[in-house]
Amino acid sequence: MSFLELIPDWLLIHGPAFLMALPLIMAAITAILPNKRVAWASTFIVTAILTLTAFSIALYNAEVGSTLYKMGGWAPPHGISLVIDALNAPVIVLIAVMAFITVIYAMPATIAEIKPNKRAPFYAAFLLSIAGLLGMVVSGDAFNVFVFLEVSSISTYVLVAMGAARDRRALSAAYNYLILGSIGATFFVIGVGFLYMETGTLNMADMARILADMDGGSRVSKIAFGFIVIGLGLKLAMFPLHAWLPGAYAYAPTPVTAFLASTATKAALYLLLRFTFFVFDPSYTYVADVLMFVLVGLGVIGMLFASLQAIFQTDVRRMLAFSSVAQVGYMLLGVGIATTASVAAGYLHLLNHAVIKGGLFLALGAMWYRFGITRTQDFQGLGQTMPWTMGAFTILGLSLVGVPFTAGFVSKINLAEAAADAGWWWAVGIIMLTSILALIYIGRVLLMAYFQSPPEVNGNVVDRNEAPLMMLFPMWVLAIASVVIGVEAGVMVDAATRAAELLLGTG
Amino acid sequence: MMTETETPPVDESAADSAAAAKADDIHPAARPFLFLGKESVKRNFIWLPLIGMIVCIIIGVFYPQAKALPIEKYIPGSWAIYGFLAYSAIVLSANTLFNFLGRDEAYYGEGGLPDPEYSTDPAITGEPHHD
Amino acid sequence: MIEQVPLLAEINPGLWVILAGLICTLLPIGHARKAFVIAAPIFAGFLIFQINGLNPGAHFGGRLNFGPVELTTLRIDKLSVVWGYLFCLAGIINGIYALHEKCRMTDSSALIYTGAAIAGVLSGDMITLFIMWELTAISSVFLIWKGGDHAYAAGVRYLAIHVLSGVMLLAGAIMFAQANGGDFMFNEIGLDSPGGWLMLLAMGIKVGFPGLHMWMQDAYPKASITGTVILASFTTKFAVYALARGFAGEEILIWVGAIMTCFPVFFAVVENDLRRVLAYSLNNQLGFMVCGIGIGSALALNGVVGQVFVHVIFKGLLFMSIGAVMYRTGTAKASELGGLFRSMPYTAVFCLIGAASIAAVPLFAAFVTKAMILAAAVYDHHYIPFLMMLFASAGVMEHSGIKVPHFTFFAHDSGRRVKEAPWNMLTAMGIATFFCIYLAWPVGGYQNLYALMPYELDKAYVPYTIDHVVFQMQLLFAAIFAFTLLKRFKLYPAERRAEILDLDWTYRKMGLGIASWASAMWDRLSVQTGRLKTRVLGAAGRRLYQTFSPAGAASEATPSGLAAIMTAGLLFVVLMFEYFAK
Fold it and tell me: Of A4, A148, A190, C231, which residue is most buried, by most CB within 10 angstroms?
């Protein structure tokens, strides 16, 4: 572990607190920075440091196992604790890396999309959102989870609304998101409140222990579970609670869409995993029933319904947004089967899908940046006019479909295998079917891009106009990552399996 | 599929005028066996299977089947009888079956009749084939 | 060789033949293609021999994983190796027989077809089996189409039926594997599950179960001369292998097989097209095999294996001799032929030997193997099926033993004076003839066939006993005597040109009639229906569009109020689930 030796010890020990404190503090500072270029630079540096920290924490975690950080030295259950374990370490890395990549991309993108006087607040909100996401992932305390959930959500509403400079519909989308997000958060906090009533603690490890002692608890904990599942379901865009998502994704500034698509719903899904398997336990019949009938049922309906909807979309970003809803269905299916292999597959799909969807939205953003493309028919001839961007889009699109040697294939095949092992053959069929549907909606765009000639403007065929390097670099990093994961999936599969073993206690 | 030397078409009417007239066309290896085509040989051929059958029935009486049907040991020449009856039944059913199942060759309008383009039948194509 | 290149032991030898076929599709040089046609089966046979030597009795290789499904693309065990050798041998003989034909399509499709059959019998799992099952159908249909324009429709029917069979096989395999915990290995299937029945039906189509047989008599006689010979070697025998592997000892097959031996003799006796007669004869022979599989004792199964082996050779020999006659005279119709022994004496001798082999005359091929199946029926007290098969044996004597050679080479002299068959055809027939005699020779002959048989017997079956020879000769002499007697009294029906109806009438005529009637009715109604159709389809499309399109209901930006109500509704659902959770 030569890399870890380079990292100072205090960072490893106080890393969890540092992860959320640094962006919080820097957000305040960034907000008042006069120069927008300095604001970008400070955000860039912060996300770079966060990435480094997240990586070292993850490596450290792989070495020493789960760690508990006590804020201010106060031991739980009275103090606030931060937990790093096999479940959240990969998510932390994911959030930090996606933030870093998005910030690189945001440099040219914000110039085109955000008014100059709004750019510093934009970066501040962005940092706040990162802080909130990281906070809700590392927190070991249910109430703090809620606090950070709200921090990230409120900053996200702001970020979405900033898309208004590009498209006024962003305002209504942000408002819609605000209302529904608040309902979700409220449901969640009500659930946490019920749990507190039942167990008398807010520390999640304690809750789990007390619930286990009470053999699942009384009707109060059942209600708590219901509220939490629905609250988080809204946040992670579980079908049919996804109404906020297409608008928010379609009209937010492009870097925000990429960041949201790859982290916000994923963090909420992480919380769902944390609560269903860690705080509660599938051995309680009410948890098992909800998993089996609600999560799987809605997941599967969502996979089919949202895939169909994606096929009919004319706006590419809405198409990908519906695709995200469908992909959440895969993850819920994996969670619902509730075997180690299936949870690992769902978790793996969470990570892979973040990489894929993030990259796809970055590519779309670059297309908007150059040609103002939002509709599918505008894709014609993009294979010639933006070959590199389209190349990345193609690789990531195929990965989304699940072509062999891509990340999407690895997680889908793992999920299918897990479903088959559990005897859920019909689910294998559904996975195949939705993959075909995905092929249709991605293929439609690819055909347009590669088999049609570029449009003519004033009698001249549109010239080649490639995206700037600072946009190409992030999307290609993600495209290559998706291929690397597809070819050499070992590390990711191991991480996902460790997480699943931790959750199901089979490790 | 057109190969080898071309010779004049086979004339159907000429063909009927006996093989003797075309003795030259007979394959050298077949020459010693031409007696097989004689009418007397054909007529008297019947004795060969009859005698063979009788001989086999007689031997069969002395060497009964090791594993036979339960009833067979009471019937000498059981397989000969069975074979004769089965064969006759099959052949005698032919006329009825033909009336029932037989149709004109152009019945389906696709098969049966050779295709002029591909057929090797001289009557259809009007040119000789492979001989 | 296999020691130096261990990879060869992982690749199904049939794939090399398929590869050769693919190369031939692009190869414009006829002689080079012919070299491939002969060399590829030899190479495959050599590889099978080598691989079989590695792990005698059970070699598994070429394992591939597709998600949860594990494929074993190569299995050479005691059962499959026989088919492997046989198909390679048949491939070589067919290749020699077709040497004169300069046709790229025939060469390549024959190779791919042969390779697919080899790969199919050597496959270890049901998915590979399915792929090869379909590939044999798709590659062989070109041989039928090569028969000319009038074969086109028959080829399409053939393809449709076989693709259907393949789909049923796959569906059955998936159902069967699902019921068995996802194990796709192709072993004993049995009829305990619906998947098993589906697979049996799929194989039944390919092997020509009564009622599912008509594709054979429809397509085979219409293929090209070489095409028919090649077709007759593989498809049905591949299916026999599948049955022997999956359904050995299923009682129902005894009766299916027994009926299958009997019904074709009645069709064969009235049929005029000798290639179609042989197709019925083929169907009848397959009946013996199916029946033997149904009996399922070691003796019966060994008999089936032996019967398959010699059957491919003598049936090929018969098709080849009639093909040679057709090549020279241009027809295979009994009514047009006769007296050809004068001009094609070698072919006549080969045909007679083939006829003797199929009729199980002592010293000729089927004598040993058919007797094993019949004996197994008697040993296991299946008397009625035994009598049916004995009846069919008399029938075989009628159509293949007497009718085919008699009306071609003897009978009334048609006056056709043609050249003897080309040297390559004679060579191919000579090789087949050699095997027909060699594999039934009492000393040092049939024992070689025994050595190939997969199952251990307590006591090897002894075919050459006086009683067996004598009783078989009784049957044959009686049949010939009946023939001459009926001829003498003019009771033997004359050969007449005609189309003999079979079950394919149901779709070629009745189905077509119904379809054309329906289409006429449809046309009449179309004025009204057209309007209705546009309205219904338009409405359906509009509904779909209205639901899913960006302007549609499902995509409408859901008002937050509605979404909130939905959330509450869902919460209610979840709470209900929890409330009633046991």
Answer: C231
